[in-house]
Prior knowledge:
By secondary structure, this protein is of the alpha/beta class. Helices cover 35% and strands 12% of the residues.
Amino acid sequence: MSRPRKSAEDLRSHRWFGKDDLRSFGHRSRAKQSGFTAEDWAGKPVIAILNTWSDANPCHAHFRLRAEEVKRGIWQAGGFPLEMPVLSLGETFMKPSTMLYRNLLAMEAEEVLRSNPVDGAVLLGGCDKTVPALLMGATSMDLPALFVPAGPMLRGNWRGETLGSGSDVWKYWAERRAGALDECAWREMEDGIARSFGTCMTMGTASTMAAAAEALGMTLPGASSIPAADSGHPRLASASGRRIVEMVLEDLKPRAILTTEAFENAVTATMALGGSTNAIIHLIALAGRAGVRLDLDRFDALSRRTPFLANIRPSGKYLMEDFFYAGGLRGALARIPDLLHLECATVNGYTLGENLEGALVFDDDVIAPRARPIGPEGGVAVLRGNLAPNGAVIKHTACEQRFLRHAGPAVVFRNYGDLEARIDDPALPATPDSVLVLQDAGPLGAPGMPEWGMLPIPKKLLAQGVRDMVRISDARMSGTAYGACVLHVAPESFVGGPLAFVRDGDVIELDVPGRRLKLRVSDEELARRRAGFKPRQVDYPRGFGHLYARHVTQADLGCDFDFLEGTAAVVEPEIH
Ligand code: FES
């Protein structure tokens, strides 16, 4: 793709550095305060490196080094790098959920780019919400931007057995609760499950969103599959630094890349990988920033036509390191070219189709051939019915298949505290056929829509050998989690969605092939229960939570803030 190249005077940063006035004097003299000289910046694109490094985010522990490697590439290509730290959103430590803060990072990214002398940006993210947040902010700002995923960590290991982030924690925690695993083994796992820096190495939200970013065209080709500890990863970082300088000169911006077709590619990739349900919320929100309408029904339609190919936990057997050796995302996408819009532009200036040329798969057991997919359709189904008028989702590739059609009596928990207090009570009226329901866990109710959707199996049922049950909530679920968990029920119970009116013993019917979720309670009875509904106030008298509670949208709309959606032009700061 050939574009007219920008001159030095066309650069946005020229307004800060290039003029002969009082303010430009200040900008230049203060750049010199940092040890830079005019040779460093004069006439050069200024590239922000938005770095989500933090001691509180082990997935990004290598980002100080990677930022230096990005800088190396920027210097090589004739740019001027400026590293700018932004909110890290470490998934492991932040409570109640990083989802509460995704939009805060998106706002921060937008404002940091807006208010500084920046011509383009390299986005260093990876741990779950950092991917959508950085992309959302950069898309709203619409300066040339390129994403560098943190890369998955190495395989976990325990007594020679491979361990996957999250997925094996849930699995062995169930064994521990069932009394089948002693404390010594549990502690050994703690030592062996996270062996390097990098993101969760299952097909959790981080791996899914990195793949989605690549399928969208927002990373260099192959970027999403490279393990964080592989020497290819620093090479990716410096190549990204070199490329962003050219992107600025070509004026290649996110909204030129993030088209309707690009989003369809991202959804198709997500489905072929058996990716995280969280990707649905994030891609809807990101599409909203790009002016693209993407709804739940589109996800379902694309899921139905996309074969499930990636044999990676939690839906499959392997981990991201195996996926990389087997050919990675390029290999997987090369197996479904007819389902992709190959003409879509990407950050390296080539189309997706051109970037897939020559891609090979080296292990059919990890990336299944098209003729022998792991499943005939994608990993996620969208359900509707009187219990979820605006939709709910289930990752049906990661549950016991007997639950795809199931009806059972509800056991209702009013909130997570109630769940915690009663789930292991021997008197809990739960059988293997019961449907566990969690209320008040949505975007506003929790608040922040935490990953509580994989409700624990009651201890007494674990002891009977039960390892999966139908569970329904307005929460999310970790991308590394699994089970017959119906998630993102919308509208959420907190705002008076029908989930709020389920009572113990009500029969709930789940029909995944038919895409239905039904509460077998008459409309009249539901109306009676609705009449008695008393909404409560969100418990955020001040701070960011106060803003969040007033502006967050429901799960089916992406949980963005209503005032951040759309493509209204960002106002350039005045410089006086
Ligand atoms: Fe960071 Fe999973 S905790 S990616």
